[in-house]
Design brief:
The complex is a heterodimer of chains A (about 300) and B (about 280). By secondary structure, chain A is mostly helical. Chain A is built from 14 helices and no strands. Chain A is globular, with a radius of gyration of 20 Å. Chain A starts with a helix and ends with a helix. By secondary structure, chain B is mainly α. Chain B is globular, with a radius of gyration of 21 Å. The chains are: A mainly alpha (about 300), B mainly alpha (about 280). At the A-B interface, helix 3, helix 5, helix 6, helix 10 and helix 12 of A face helix 2, helix 4, helix 5, helix 9 and helix 11 of B.
């Protein structure tokens, strides 16, 4: 029994302060991302969610160049990017793709410049990799309180606008007819998304930011129709994937003889991706009472009808 | 600026890339496929990292991953929604890239150039393959032109006419994958995207006629890369920065032009109405 235990949890796993920080930050970010993600998947804004990660990474590289606080760079440029996307037409479905793409293109150009200038003016090695991939194990403990505050702020915004946001997601026309300020609610959602994504790409890197935003939420919306259940499921799956990923990455150091280990982002994404694939299996979908071809937007509509009827 | 051999190579390859980007990009914008257009080259770059690890040609790694990405997005997105499938395929490819990169340490400079492009470092031997793949992409678009256009604008009508939407989608994603795999070493994984969005979007807001818009999109893309190379040569800043900013700026100009046109039309429509109003009084 003890051997099995040490085979799963390699020695020093629970004692390592690095692991503790990674698990705390990763878990928190996973929860905030999962909640934001459910709205994001339902609204069909995955591209926006991913693009804002790259936009905030551009802000991060700019902050690195100017010597500003990385949090200001990540979250600041993310919010500006979200504002511009909203302004040039993220509201209409057809313009949304384009608005996101244009802002993303400009942000990538800026990243190219900032990273180039950083690499020529200082000897910071690893900046490119750090910005692009990030590493959960490199999170300084000092960012934890700030991460909690920003994450909580994004959650509060989502809770406040949650119900009208769902209604505008399902049917903007009905929402407008009922006096919901559709435009304002959409903007509030975009800002919450920007904060959540900026925070997560700073704390855990751009890859994991998108993976934890979309993966758990999309999986949840495949197995349940009810929004509240989906929110809970997404949080649980996101946190579980993060913890399992951290454990596997820690253990991978002991695999083989080379003692190199594989990056934690690889394992977390692999768990999330597998979960998504499994949730699409016909057996699971049948158990959840789905017909083939049901999509999250339909689920959202069904949930809304139920709530209206109640 | 034109004398040095490497600069000549840069001008030629950039021109090929701009023509392909302008043509393929028109359909990217028309179909709302901006996310796959971003995800395929970005994910494909992970293939280059894998190829470097195995010691094989980076182009092979790029091509394999671009194709895998395109097929993955197409088949995962078949039921349910496209954007979720794209996001997940992208992160999975990037995660593999991160795993590959963790095995090598001397990859950082190459990483930057693969992501943001190294147009000034194109060798003469790379021009011919780039041109051939580019020609293949344009030929593919030309052959598919009618059904692709119909399936992009009115999917229902296309279905009714017996055009299989999903098959068209798959073929288009493969063309997109080829176009991006060929351009990644030149303008970088991230910037081919700017080239495929800004110029076509600008062209579309100026004219709604497909062929004209496509030609205009190629012209804007050409001007964008030429100015970007010249500026990069003069100021020694990365080409990618200029491509990204000019791409967004051209879209801004296109939108401005469209708004100005609309206002002009509204005014000329308002004048007779006004005249009629005053006549009644």
């Amino acid at each position: 029994m003890h051997e099995l235990y040490t085979a799963i949890f390699e020695p020093g796993f629970f004692g390592s302060s690095q692991v503790q920080v990674a698990a705390t930050v990763g878990g928190l970010v996973a929860i905030v991302s999962a909640v934001t993600g459910v709205f994001t998947v339902m609204r069909g804004q995955s591209f926006g969610g991913h693009a804002l990660g790259d936009v905030s990474a551009a802000g991060g590289s700019g902050a690195l160049l100017l010597g500003l606080s990385p949090v200001a760079g990540f979250v600041g440029l993310g919010i500006i990017g979200a504002g511009v996307m909203d302004m040039i037409g993220v509201r209409r479905l057809r313009g949304r793709d384009l608005a996101t793409g244009v802002v993303l293109g400009a942000a990538i150009g800026m990243s190219a410049l900032f990273l180039y200038l950083t690499s020529t003016t200082s000897a910071t090695t690893g900046a490119v990799q750090q910005i692009l991939f990030g590493s959960i194990f490199a999170t300084p403990a000092g960012t934890v309180p700030l991460a909690i505050i920003l994450g909580a702020a994004a959650l509060v915004v989502l809770v406040v606008v949650g119900r009208p946001l769902l209604l505008t997601t399902v049917s903007p026309d009905i929402a407008a007819a009922r006096g919901v300020p559709v435009r304002l609610v959409g903007l509030a959602y975009m800002l919450a998304l920007a904060v959540s994504v900026g925070l997560s790409s700073l704390a855990i890197g751009a890859i994991l930011s998108t993976a934890l935003l979309i993966g758990p939420a999309a999986t949840a919306l495949r197995v349940t129709r009810r929004v509240t259940t989906a929110l809970v499921f997404a949080c649980v799956f996101g946190v579980a994937a993060t913890l399992i990923g951290i454990l596997l990455a820690y253990d991978s150091y002991y695999w083989g003889t080379s003692h190199e280990g594989l990056p934690v982002s690889f394992f977390i994404v692999a768990v999330v991706f597998l979960g998504y694939l499994v949730s699409g299996l016909p057996v699971i979908r049948a158990a959840a009472g789905y017909r083939a071809g049901a999509d999250p937007a339909q689920a959202a509509r069904a949930a809304e009808r139920e709530e209206l009827a109640a | 600026m034109f004398a040095a051999g490497f600069m000549m190579n840069a001008w030629i390859t950039a021109t090929i890339v701009a023509v392909v980007g302008g043509v393929v990009g028109y359909f990217v914008v028309l179909r709302g496929s901006a996310f796959p257009a971003h995800a395929i080259p970005k994910g494909a770059f992970a293939g280059a990292a894998g190829a470097a690890l195995l010691g094989i040609n980076t182009i092979i790694g790029l091509g394999v991953f671009a194709l895998l990405g395109a097929l993955g997005i197409g088949s995962l997105g078949r039921r349910g929604r496209h954007d979720v499938a794209t996001a997940l395929a992208l992160v999975m490819m990037l995660a593999l890239g991160a795993a590959f990169l963790s095995r090598t340490t001397e990859y950082e400079p190459e990483l930057y150039s693969l992501l943001f492009g190294e147009v000034l470092g194109v060798s003469t031997s790379e021009i011919l393959p780039t041109a051939l793949v580019g020609l293949g992409c344009i030929a593919g678009i030309a052959v598919l032109y009618r059904p692709l256009l119909l399936a992009s604008i009115t999917p229902e009508v296309a279905e009714a006419k017996g055009i299989r939407g999903h098959r068209i989608e798959m073929i288009f994603l493969v063309i997109l994958a080829l176009a991006t795999a060929m351009t990644v070493p030149v303008v970088g994984a991230l910037l081919i995207f700017s080239l495929m969005i800004g110029p076509p979007a600008a062209a579309r807001s100026v004219t709604s006629r497909p062929l004209l818009a496509m030609i205009l999109s190629v012209v804007i893309a050409l001007v964008t890369v030429w100015v970007a190379i010249a500026a990069s040569y003069l100021y020694n800043w990365p080409v990618g920065f200029f491509v990204g900013v000019l791409g967004a700026a051209s879209y801004g100009c296109g939108r401005g032009w469209a708004a100005w046109q609309r206002r002009g039309r509204a005014r000329s429509a308002a004048v007779p109405a006004l005249a009629a109003g005053s006549g009644r009084r």
